[in-house]
Design goal:
single chain; about 200 residues; mainly alpha; two-stranded antiparallel sheet
C-alpha cells in the first residue's frame, strides 16, 4: 500500500472510533445499557415504548393487502440463505484449516436483539428476527468469501468496487505483478486477518 493510502486507512480507523463514541452517547440518550451482555432499558423508557406499540390485531387490520400477499415471497428467501449459511459453515470448517485462514466466528455476525424492544408487536419481532438472520448470515458469508479472496486472489479490480470488504484495501493493485508476488510470499505462513480470533 502506498504511504498516502496508509494515511487514509489510519484516518478511516480514527473516524470509525469516533463513530463508536457517538453511538455510545446515543445509547445513553436512549437510556439503555448492557449488563452481562443483556440489554436493559430504564423502566420509564419501557413504559413509553409500550404505549407506542401497535397491537398485533390493529397491525394486521391496517396492513396493505399486497404486503400480506407478498409475505410468502419475502419469507421464502430464508431457504436459500439458510442453505448457503450451512454450506459456507461446512466449507470454512473443511478448507480454512488447510489454507491457514483464520475461521470467521459466526456468532460475531448473528445478532438478535430487537426482541427487547417493547414497542414492537409479535409479528414485528418475527420480521426483525428474519431480517437480522438474513442480513447477518450474508455478512458472515461475505467475510468467509473475503478471507478466501485474501488467500487466493488478493488483487484489486481495475474498476471501482462498490462496498468492498475490509480486507480489499490491502490487496495488490491491479497490474502490479510484483505486489501480487509479495502478497503470495506473505501468505506462505498463513493468512493474517486483523481482529481474527
Amino acid at each position: 500500500m502506498t504511504a498516502q493510502l496508509d494515511v487514509l486507512m489510519d484516518r478511516l480507523r480514527s473516524v470509525e472510533a469516533e463513530i463508536e463514541v457517538e453511538l455510545t452517547k446515543r445509547r445513553e440518550e436512549l437510556r439503555f445499557r448492557f449488563e452481562n451482555s443483556r440489554i436493559v432499558f430504564e423502566e420509564e423508557v419501557l413504559q413509553v415504548q409500550r404505549t407506542i406499540k401497535i397491537g398485533l390485531a390493529r397491525y394486521l387490520r391496517d396492513a396493505h393487502p399486497l404486503v400480506a400477499l407478498s409475505a410468502p415471497v419475502i419469507y421464502s428467501l430464508i431457504i436459500p440463505i439458510a442453505l448457503a449459511d450451512l454450506w459456507v459453515m461446512a466449507y470454512q470448517a473443511i478448507c480454512f484449516p488447510i489454507y491457514g485462514i483464520p475461521k470467521v466466528r459466526r456468532r460475531d455476525y448473528l445478532v438478535f436483539d430487537r426482541h427487547h424492544l417493547a414497542y414492537l408487536n409479535t409479528l414485528e419481532k418475527i420480521n426483525c428476527a428474519y431480517c437480522s438472520y438474513c442480513n447477518n448470515a450474508i455478512a458472515f458469508i461475505r467475510e468467509v468469501a473475503a478471507r478466501t479472496e485474501v488467500y487466493w486472489c488478493p488483487i484489486k479490480h481495475a474498476r471501482r468496487v462498490l462496498g468492498p470488504h475490509p480486507h480489499y484495501q490491502g490487496f495488490a493493485d491491479f497490474g502490479d505483478a510484483e505486489g501480487f508476488q509479495k502478497k503470495q510470499e506473505q501468505l506462505k505462513n498463513g493468512v493474517k486477518i486483523e481482529g481474527a480470533s
